[in-house]
Amino acid sequence: MALLVIDDLAKTYDKVTALTGINLSVEAGEFVTLLGPSGSGKTTLLMSLAGFTTPSKGTIRLDGKDITHVDPEDRNFGFVFQGYALFPHLTVANNIAFSLRVRKWEKARIATRVSEMLSLVGLDNLAERKPRELSGGQQQRVAIARALAFGPRILLLDEPLSALDRMLRETMQKELKRLHRETGVTFVYVTHDQEEAIAMSDRIAVFNHGRIVEIGPPRDLYKKPSTRFVAGFLGENNFLSGHRADDDATKVEAFGTRFGFPLAKGRERPGDSLTVWVRPEDIRIGQATGDEIGFRATVVENAFVGALERILLRTATGEQMVATLRSEAAVAAVPGQIIDCRIDPSAIGVLPNEASGS
Ligand SMILES: Nc1ncnc2c1ncn2[C@@H]1O[C@H](COP(=O)(O)OP(=O)(O)OP(=O)(O)O)[C@@H](O)[C@H]1O
Ligand SMILES: [Mg+2]
User: How far apart are CA 233 and CA 24, in angstroms?
Assistant: First the structure.
C-alpha cells in the first residue's frame, strides 16, 4: 500500500478553483515533485498535505488512515517552505533542537540528534552561529536539518532553493538528493523549475490550471509525453504541423517529408491534422540512413552558445525548427545553405490536434 494516497482532492477559494480532481499516490521513500507554472496549484496541494489548508473536497490518507482534517502538528510531517525563516534569535543548534523540545525529547537525546543533523548537512562547525551569520545556502541547510530532525514521515518542500543563485542551487540539489538517499524519508517537493524537477525526482506530477496533467518518471515524461503541455513544458521542443497522408493513414507528412508513425487504435483518418514534435538535440545533419527520417532545410542562423551550437532551420513547409549540435557537427550549417537533416524515428512525437479528436 502506498504511504500517502490523495483521492479526488479539490480546493476552491470564493471564485478561484485552485485544485480539482487531484489523485496521487506516493510510495514510502519516494521523491515526488509537483511541477507546474505559477498559479497551477502546487503550493495549495502542499499546504493541504501539511494541514494548513482545508480541502473543499476529497481525502488525504497516510498509511490508510484519513488525515484530511488532522491538525498539522499531529501529521508528523516536516516542512521547508520558501520564507519559512529560521528563528533569528536562536543559534543553529537551537533552531534544529526546537522541534525536538516541542516534542518533549530528553536533553541527552536532543544533543545527540542535533549533532547528527549538523554533520548530516555539513555544518558541524557552525552550531553556535546565529542565522544572520550564515550564507543563504547554509541557512537553507539549517532549515532542512530542522525539518528532518524529529524524523518526519514525509518532508514537504516548497521551492526551497528558489532564492539561491544558480551555482548554489545546483550544489543544494545534490545535497538534497544525498539527504533523501541517506535518510530514506519520503520527499514531496514543489518547484516550477523543470531542470530541477528532472534532476531530482523519482516521479514528477506536472500541474496546469489546478490539475495534474501527467505523472511519471522524468525520463518517461521527457521522452514520451502524451500531452502537448508536457511536451512543451519539460525541456525545449519544436512543434510542427503535420497530417495523416491522404493515400495512407499510417504515414505522417510534416516539414516536407513523410514517415510511418504507429497509429493509436485506428483513430486517425487520412488527412487528419497532427502536431509533430522533435527535440533540438535529436536533429542531426547529414543524409538519412537506415530507417532515419530525412528532410531538407535552410539554415537561417547559427549561434554559438557554449558547449553547443544552436542552429535555426527553416523547413520546406516554411516552419522554423531549432537544432542543437556539437561544434564539429555544426560546421556544415552555414547560414543561407540548404542542408540534409535526419532524425531517428524513435525521437519523433505525434500528437492529435484538438479539432481532429484526442
Ligand atoms: N488564500 C487564497 N485565496 C484565494 N486564492 C488563492 C489563495 N491561495 C491561492 N490562491 C489561488 O489559487 C491558485 C493556485 O495557487 P498556488 O499558490 O497553489 O499556485 P502555485 O502553483 O504554488 O504557484 P507559484 O509557482 O506561483 O508558487 C492561484 O490562482 C492563486 O491565486
Ligand atoms: Mg507556490
Answer: 20
C-alpha angle 167-168-172 in degrees, rounded to nearest 5: 125
**Which pairs from 299-303 meet CB under 8 Å and 24+ separation?**
299/333, 299/334, 299/335, 299/336, 299/337, 299/338, 299/339, 300/335, 301/335, 302/330, 302/333, 302/334, 302/335
Pocket of ligand 1 (CB under 6 A): 13, 16, 18, 36, 38-44, 192
Return the CATH class of domain 237-356. mainly beta
What confidence category does residue 83 fall into, taking pLDDT thresholds of 50, 70 and 90?
A: low
- Report the pLDDT value the prediction gives residue 116, as an integer from 0 to 100: 93
Query: Nearest Cα to 191, choosing from 338, 344, 82?
Result: 82
CATH of domain 4-232: 3.40.50.300
Q: Where in the chain are all domains bearing CATH 3.40.50.300?
A: 4-232
CA 45–ligand 1 middle distance (angstroms): 10
Provide, rounded to the nearest whole percent, the portion of the chain with pLDDT above 90: 78
Measured N-to-C along each axis, helices 136-148 and 107-120 cross at an angle, to the nearest 10 degrees, of 140
> Do 276 and 345 meet the contact criterion of CB atoms below 8 Å apart?
no
pLDDT band, very low/low/confident/very high, at 264 (cuts 50, 70, 90): low
Task: Count CB-CB contacts under 10 A for residue 271.
Answer: 13
- Are the C-beta atoms of 270 and 240 separated by less than 8 Å? no
Please report the atom of ligand 1 found closest to the CA of residue 34.
Answer: 21
